[in-house]
Amino acid sequence: MTRNIQQLLTxxxxxxxxxxxxxxxxxxxxxxxxSLYGIKKLRELILELAVRGKLVEQDPDDEPAEVLxxxxxxxxxxxxxxxxxxxxxxxxxxxxxxxxxxxxxGWKWVRLQGLTTLLGDGLHGTPNYDDKGEYYFVNGxxxxxxxxxxxxxxxxxxxxxxxxxxxHLNSRTVLVSINGTLGxxxxxxxxxxxxxxxxxxxxxxxxxxxxxxxxLIMAPYFSDYARANATGSxxxxxxxxxxxxxxxxxxPLDEQHRIVAKVDELMALCxxxxxxxxxxxxxxxxxVDTLLGTLTQSQNxxxxxxxxxxxxxxxxxxxxxxxxxxxxxxxxxxxxxxxxLVPQNPNDEPASELLKKVATDRAKxxxxxxxxxxxxxxxxxxxxxxxxxxxxxxxxxxGDLVQYQKGYAFKSKDYLECGLMITKIQNLTENHxxxxxxxxxxSALVFAQYLLHEGDIVMTTVGSWFSAPISAVGRSFxxxxxxxxSLLNQNAVRIRPWKELAPVYLFACINxxxxxxxxxxxxxxxxxQASITQESIKTFLLCVPPKEEQHRIVxxxxxxxxxxxQLKERLQHNQQTQLLLTDTLVNEALN
Length: 591
Description:
The structure is a single chain. The protein is 40% helix and 15% strand. By secondary structure, it is α+β, with helices and mostly antiparallel strands. Among the domains are: 63-251, DNA methylase specificity domains (Adenine-n6-DNA-methyltransferase TaqI, Chain A, domain 2), CATH 3.90.220.20; 351-544, DNA methylase specificity domains (Adenine-n6-DNA-methyltransferase TaqI, Chain A, domain 2, Alpha-Beta Complex). A hairpin with a 7-residue loop joins strand 9 and strand 10 (185-187). Helix 3 runs antiparallel to helix 9 (253-296) and helix 3 runs parallel beside helix 17 (547-590). It is elongated.
């Protein structure tokens, strides 16, 4: 390994380990939802340097690859003479345009076909399965890191079916996935298998390092070639012609072995770096959990203020991941709904008076026939109360504080390109309207009960706990002017608070960990397809602050969330800088 390459690999360890990319499904407090981008790029760089002849020093005493190729040709000619294989069609020489980089002295460009004695793919069709069959029907998704992986769902075939479609596999056989996921690789080791069409196989000539070929297939060089030559839009397919024509950078045999040894050595280093980085992320998360826990466990405003002061002095070192910043936001909401975020004012009108006004307003509308009288909710008992509320606060069921409306299943045949908007789950974004559908404007009177107004809260009632936020059950949205006078679609519920309850404060309660935990407990169905009933939402126990304190809480939440957003923006900028630096290092090493 040349000195400048060694420096790039070893003298930038901090960058390799600190360049971290958030995955789209990143969840709260889970370091495994992150991609260790720097280490991933380091692995790719090692493999790419290997196939370009830049990872180990060349030895002038090595037998050149040209001589090795002559022996491979002689081996193939002998097999043809012995009628063990058929003569293959001669492929055109590799043009200069096909060579993406220059090779070191002693190396040779050769098409993959020139290194094999046989190349083909599996069965194009569906065999007759047999649950008691002796052979497994494997495809590209059964290949992983050099091994054939038999899964519980892998189908079987019997001896007769195998004999009809068997391929000539041996100890020199390399299997590669060429449909769907491209480039999964495995060595054949005598397993009882029958190949499907998404796996190709090639039998390497005797005097080649199978492991070197494996490293080459795993390198970005092959994935770039596969992307450039694959067909299909949704499901990619790499044809046998492209596999046969693959230009292979071939080093001398002795150098192949040195490269494999060096790659394994450096990959072991990457494993160590990865483990250390994940341990550091876990330790960081534990620290964040512990310190944020001191906030929610504070017994009074003075104790909370002291804990917050200690925490705020270490913001730059504590909140260094998007997950930790999101967790800080959740803690802020938790403090808000427990009455710990702002001090109480003894001059505020107590929440008990607020609840009386809500009851009076509701009774008036019932008497006037404007709303229906609802079934009384169960009385609150001491066992349900999760914490001791501050003075002036009062417990209430959510059903006694808001009006509910389930969405309507509008028919697609009535959709128009403009008119009265139907607000679907996927419409709900902060700053713009997307995927909108409309119905005739004169339908407003017919569907008046489903109208949404600014200040309403919409909550999804069907979805998955683990899906993208846009389709997750329990996702909520505070209706703004953008969606005012739109119609509520199915699989959602409209929550409209009585005027004594600030919509923004209720929205904070609905997004708090207390309410989210309640939803998980109350959800019906499975984690992948859960649902929340309107009755469950109504039954939720909410601790209501005085009206004046609601507004003070909202102001404080906005102030602290702005700080969190600033932290996240700075973090994202730093992360992008680290990713850019990582890519720059990779390009420097290759060029």
